[in-house]
Design goal:
Butyryl-Coa Dehydrogenase, subunit A, domain 1, 4-stranded mixed beta sheet, 4-stranded antiparallel beta sheet, Butyryl-CoA Dehydrogenase, subunit A, domain 2, alpha+beta, 10 strands
Length: 409
């Protein structure tokens, strides 16, 4: 399988790389460019966003008719990797989570009226958004069937009560995509809605403190206490909430992986530059076999991760759900990122542990990779289930998707 990039896509990738090298990476060295949550300061981000838009590098995942780049998933993989060689990259290009996944799902499932109201402002960068699904115990986490937040229909509105947490971007979001229970049916008992931050009946309980640096808006805990949502703001049909969630989460897992590969590459770039100049015992560190083994293994895992991501991206571009491929990429790339940045810190010594480089930032951020959008253990179970269902189809060269389980699973 040849993943040589189309010349047009490779041209975009090169332009993204040049922007990152010339405009973003230099900003990281000055702590004045960071906000209190260790992300790029809003005014600095605004300047960089205007520059990215002027260069035609804005929202590459969205259709050109909406002002985006119209890239397929394979093109996104190449460009997102380049973007996140800078820790400021995804937000600059309007390709950061959770907006990235919300834009893609709204483009797929929204009506034209819903796209105008809820999608276009996100694409334009006028608002941010959040995906409201995860709940504290005993509510839904990796198992969405456990969702306990309810939406009860009353005339032309839905009244929502419940409790959500770890809602990325909640403190800065204006548009929220909510998954709530609308019946007791195990498969068709959830529905998806949109609501605006100015709607009464909900509140941000707190911004949850976390180990790593945060996306803009942090990770919020929300309480819904009679939030009213007009039926016109429902996405797809009543009972299609898990369908909407799956449409959103599959590609969003892969775009996480695309960005993580960029962070992994940046880590190895920093390690390579340092070991190439640092002398010890009359030799450059890069000439030491022990260093070469560490760098070689980390680079190998990143390269494998890229192939898994490209394979999954090509399946999505072909119209497959690619559930198996997405889970494989998610598990492997999360581990590859951690190995790459851990290796880079080790080879940089005390310099890597300090804030003189972004390695400690990346290290703390990387720990969430094995948790977000489904813990690695959950994805390994998904892979094992697909293997168990049909070992032959699992390894079939031409098979797009795993067979459905008895009963339609």
């Amino acid at each position: 399988m040849d993943f040589t990039l189309d010349p047009t896509i490779d041209g975009v990738r090169r332009r993204v790389r040049a922007f990152v090298d010339e405009r973003l990476i230099p900003l990281e060295a000055d702590r004045a460019n960071y906000d209190e949550h260790e992300n790029v300061r809003e005014d600095v981000l605004g300047t960089m966003r205007s520059a990215a838009r002027a260069e035609g590098l804005w929202a590459l995942q969205t259709p050109t008719s909406r002002g985006g780049g119209g890239l397929p998933f394979v093109g996104m993989a190449a460009c997102y990797e380049e973007m996140n060689r800078s820790i400021f990259g995804p937000a600059t290009f309007n390709s950061a989570a959770p907006d990235d996944g919300n834009m893609m799902v709204l483009e797929r499932v929204g009506t034209e009226a819903q796209k105008t109201r809820w999608l276009q402002p996100i694409v334009d960068g006028r608002v941010r958004s959040a995906f409201v699904m995860t709940e504290p115990h005993p509510g839904g986490g990796s198992d969405p069937a456990m969702i306990s937040t309810t939406a009860e229909r009353r005339g032309g509105k839905w009244v929502v009560h419940g409790h959500k947490w770890f809602i990325t971007g909640a403190a800065a979001a204006a548009h929220f995509l909510l998954i709530a229970r609308t019946s007791g049916d195990a498969r068709k008992g959830h529905t998806a809605f949109m609501f605006h931050r100015d709607a009464p009946g909900w509140r941000l309980l707190r911004r949850i403190p976390v180990m790593g640096p945060e996306e803009h808006g942090g990770h919020g805990e929300l309480v819904l206490e009679g939030l009213e949502i007009p039926d016109e703001d429902r996405l797809l049909g009543v009972g299609d909430g898990l369908k909407v969630a799956q449409i959103r989460l599959g590609p969003a897992r892969l775009t996480h992986c695309m960005r993580w590969l960029g962070l992994a590459r940046r880590s190895l770039e920093i390690a390579g530059a340092y070991t190439g100049m640092r002398m010890s015992g009359g030799k450059r560190l890069a000439e030491r076999e022990s260093v070469q083994l560490l760098m070689g293994e980390a680079a190998l895992q990143v390269r494998i991760g890229r192939l898994l991501v490209m394979h999954a991206a090509s399946k999505l571009d072909a119209g497959a759900m690619a559930r198996n491929e997405l889970s494989m990429a998610k598990v492997h790339v999360a581990d590859a990122l951690h190995r790459a940045v851990d290796t880079a810190i080790q080879l940089n010594g005390g310099r890597g542990y300090s804030k003189d480089t972004p390695l400690e930032w990346i290290y703390r951020y990387a720990r969430q990779a094995r948790l977000v959008d489904g813990a690695s253990e959950v994805h390994r179970m998904v892979i094992a289930r697909h293997l168990s269902d049909s070992p032959e189809a699992f390894f079939d060269w031409n098979h797009l998707d795993p067979p459905k389980r008895p009963g339609g699973g």
